[in-house]
Write a structure and sequence with these properties.
By secondary structure, the protein is α/β, with parallel strands linked by helices. The chain has 7 helices and 7 strands, in the order E-H-E-H-H-E-H-E-E-E-H-E-H-H.
Amino acid sequence: MKLLHIDASVLGDNSVSRQLSAAVVARFNETVENLDVTYRDLDRNPIPHLSSGSLAQVDAAEATDAEAVMQQFLAADVIVIGAPMYNFSIPSTLKAWIDRVAVAGRTFKYTENGPVGLAGGKRVIIASSRGGIYTDSPADFQEPFLRQVFAFMGITNVEFVRAEGIAYSPTHREEAIAAALASLPAAEFEELAEAWVFQGRR
């Protein structure tokens, strides 16, 4: 099984989303034998934001990296993303990554009946952190956007491990992290691992 792990927080060791995404990946490592993990830190190793030069592939190194990003995405069976809420949405570095994997003809296509996703069959788990509390809030442009963009590419198995209200107080932060860690879906991990072993796709 191939797992792609993405982090986008700029807070390093102080990041809640990084802590949660690492916990999700650790759970997979505990459950799935011979797990192949690819990791990219979008803060330390960002992807250039999409530009006219990107589309024209004027920079060979950028084009090569963009194709590598796409291949990692296509090859992944499970994608774990540490996605903090920044200004009601996602970090621009994560949006830059999305712009390299949401590509017409590669992960979706347009037809007479509308768009069709081409990247289905993957499982996406998003470690979401928010300073405030935005569940069911019209100000939440983070999680709905992520759910929509993956659905557009044909990925409907999208789960969230969420810690919010972490900026309210140290107590809120601790309780939110504890609740998020307690919500890791252990049984689902086991079922997924058993399915992959049965199919001979370790």
